[in-house]
Design goal:
This protein has about 675 residues and is mainly alpha-helical. Helix content is about 65%, strand content about 5%. Among the domains are: about 10-175, Toll/interleukin-1 receptor homology (TIR) domain (Rossmann fold), CATH 3.40.50.10140; about 190-315, no CATH class; about 565-675. The protein is globular and about 90 Å long.
């Protein structure tokens, strides 16, 4: 093998990232048969493992220049593996990676893995032609592809073909050795029906427990335990790889349940490091499969058991950086799981622990890039959790520390540039929620500076998307401050970005939804010309209703609620007298974020206005409920405006709106309130 940093570089479309994640894990964890290790081939000495393998985080579909970090990784890779699919063929980024690798290293160390489609419709252009002395020729290349498709090699043989190519071992020899080693394990799986897989695992586990309890033939019992661990890991990795592409992860539910039962009864202090490591990997896989299936209980149990393993390993080696890193990931997943279940009380201490472990990594190895990234990520996640707890000053301090850490990383990579923008964005949103619009605008402009700094480029779609979001937020903040003309300029920039992105991918619901929000604020900006604003809102709401009908994502419904509030404030007629979405939002009001509750409050006020002529008592109930949805510690402009609206209708005094410009949001709610 070569002396470069990476054994291989994986090039793939972001739509194929699941297969890329499987291949990355499969290559780095594949144990080359012992009798082949140390032998010599044309590629050099055969290693024990093929780690590390470079896996780019995600496709950059519109970038024309390879980022510095990616370019460096290509130069330091012994081989290139291209995951071929129709999406990969259309990806400019994948083609540029192939072109750059061939320019640096030639054709011989490029391997193709066909995952979808036929070769002609799946091979990137640069893969299909030969290079000579680093330059493209007109001669066609005929790359021999491993074929992961069911009608091709399948997952296992495709993996072995790649291992053979990377090591120089003859494929038939590798297959033979691999089959000898796996014969007993494979016999369990292939002999079992789908319903019998759990039974097979159960028999292996039962045999282990009986041997352990009897303390008979201890060495054999340890071997049996390792084989059972291996069997479970096989079912959750290799077998999962075969079942996931055809949508049959349900087959693994019984295996996951049995694995959870088996591992949860182990005494961690009696396991060696290797066993704990296998246990942690298996439990994370169980959790991941459970998460993909929507089985939140299995995911939660898997994350808990994985954390027990990594925690035990860390207790044994408290100054081992890798142990700290591994347990930090466990703490993150525990926080993530609880956060997704809406259990903030459980999530919060895990977010704190994740941040604290990042600090510990920095104390152990402050120059390590991963130490800085984990610390900064921990600060961002903790900041988000603090915002949910309405501890805004602490949240902003956490976001500041994250931004400072990301900003200190040099050279700055694309990923670091984008995550720096996210940290600043969280800070700006927190400032806006506090009513400090001036500081929020200043931070938003810092975001634009970060998005304009190298190595980020404005022909990168993810950068375009982020820039559109920031411009829209600047525009809406300026509207909140009553600066309608400047807000309209920023919103026009945002809409131009969204128009371009939606034209490229009309099926992207998130982009369509964000474009509708920008258009809504533009309608607010032009509300002085009421007829034009109403016509614009009619078009926006019609498209937003299509998004709500096609997606279960709550964000589309939350945006529709805001559009209803705006439409009614300008006297539009695009919403029905009774909107089902209002009742749905009311039913889940206790689970809504503060921002969503403020939007619901605005709609309840308009609902009260609608029924007041006929039923004043019910209208007052709605106005009172709106006021309760806007607690006194909410000081963002939107909350202040609508608290004043509710107070006015209830003939109550309101002093908190004194700092709100009369022309906030172009004055549409002041006009609506008769102020």
């Amino acid at each position: 093998m070569g002396q470069r940093r990476y054994r291989a570089f994986l090039s793939y479309s972001h739509r194929d990232r699941r297969i890329a994640a499987w291949l990355h894990r499969a290559l780095e964890t594949y144990d080359i048969p012992q009798k082949l290790v140390g032998t010599h081939t044309l590629q050099g000495e055969v290693p024990r493992r093929l780690a590390p393998v470079f896996k780019d985080r995600e496709e950059l579909p519109a970038a024309h220049n390879l980022g510095e970090a990616i370019d460096l990784a290509l130069g330091e890779s012994d081989a290139l593996i291209v995951l071929c699919s129709p999406d990969a063929k259309e990806s400019l980024w994948v083609d540029k990676e192939v072109e750059r690798f061939k320019h640096l290293h030639g054709d011989n160390r490029v391997f193709a893995l066909l995952i979808r489609g036929e070769p002609a419709e799946s091979f990137p252009p640069s893969l299909a032609v030969r290079f000579h002395n680093g330059h493209r020729t007109d001669k066609p290349a005929e790359p021999i592809a491993a074929d992961i498709r069911p009608q091709g090699d399948g997952h296992r043989r495709a993996l072995l073909k790649l291992v053979a190519g990377l090591t120089g071992v003859k494929f038939d020899e590798l297959v033979g050795r691999d089959q000898q080693r796996r014969h007993r394990r494979m016999a369990y799986a292939t002999a079992a029906s789908l319903a019998g897989m759990t039974v097979t695992t159960g028999l292996a586990v039962y045999a282990i427990e009986q041997r352990d309890e009897a303390r008979v033939r201890q060495v054999e019992a340890q071997t049996q335990r390792a084989e059972a661990d291996g069997l479970i890991e096989y079912m959750l990795t290799d077998l999962r790889g075969k079942l996931e592409p055809v949508g049959r992860l349900d087959v693994l539910k019984g295996v996951g349940d049995r694995a959870l039962d088996y591992y949860s009864r182990q005494k961690l202090d009696q396991l060696d490091g290797d066993s704990l490591g296998r246990r942690a990997r298996a439990m994370l896989l169980v959790a991941e499969v459970g998460d993909l299936q929507g089985n939140s209980e299995a995911a939660r149990r898997g994350f808990i058991e994985a954390a027990r393993s990594t925690g035990e390993l860390l207790k044994r080696e408290p100054d081992n950086w890798q142990r700290v890193f591994d347990h930090a990931q466990s703490e993150f997943w525990l926080a993530y799981d609880a956060h997704n279940r809406g259990d903030r009380a459980t999530a919060f201490p895990h977010f704190v622990a994740y941040r604290d472990l990042g600090r510990r990594m920095m104390s152990l190895d402050p120059n390590k890039l991963e130490s800085k990234v984990e610390l900064a990520s921990g600060e961002v996640n903790l900041g988000v959790a603090l915002v949910a707890e309405r501890k805004m000053d602490q949240a902003i301090a956490s976001f500041d520390r994250a931004a400072a850490t990301f900003g200190s990383i040099s050279p700055r990579t694309r990923d670091i540039g984008l995550t720096l923008n996210q940290a600043l964005g969280h800070k700006a949103s927190a400032l806006f929620a506090m009513g400090d619009n001036e500081a929020a605008l200043s931070t938003r402009r810092m975001q634009l500076e970060a998005l304009s700094a190298a190595p980020l480029t404005q022909d990168d779609r993810e950068v375009q998307e982020a820039t559109a979001v920031v411009n829209a937020q600047i525009g809406s903040t300026l509207l909140a401050d009553g600066n309608v003309s400047a807000g309209a300029v920023a919103l026009a920039k945002a809409s131009a970005y969204w128009d371009e992105l939606v034209a490229l991918d009309p099926a992207n619901k998130m982009w369509r939804g964000e474009r509708n929000v920008s258009r809504m604020w533009q309608a607010v900006a032009k509300s002085a010309s009421t007829s034009a604003a109403r016509a614009e809102m009619t078009s926006i709401i019609a498209d937003q209703r299509q998004l709500v009908a096609a997606s279960t994502d709550w964000v589309h419904k939350e945006n529709l609620l805001r559009m209803i509030a705006v439409d009614r404030a300008i006297g539009g007629s695009s919403t029905a007298a009774t909107e089902p979405i209002i009742a749905e939002a009311w039913a889940r009001r206790d689970k809504l974020k503060a921002e969503d509750r403020a939007v619901l409050a605005a709609v309840l006020i308009s609902e009260g206005d609608r029924i007041a002529p006929a039923d004043r008592r019910q209208a007052e109930r709605l106005w009172a409920e709106a006021a309760r949805l806007l607690p006194r510690d909410e000081s963002g402009t939107w909350a202040l405006v609508h608290r004043a609206r509710a107070a006015q209708r209830l003939s109550q005094s309101s002093t908190q709106d004194r700092g709100v410009p009369p022309n906030a949001f172009a004055g549409i709610f002041a006009q609506d309130a008769g102020q």
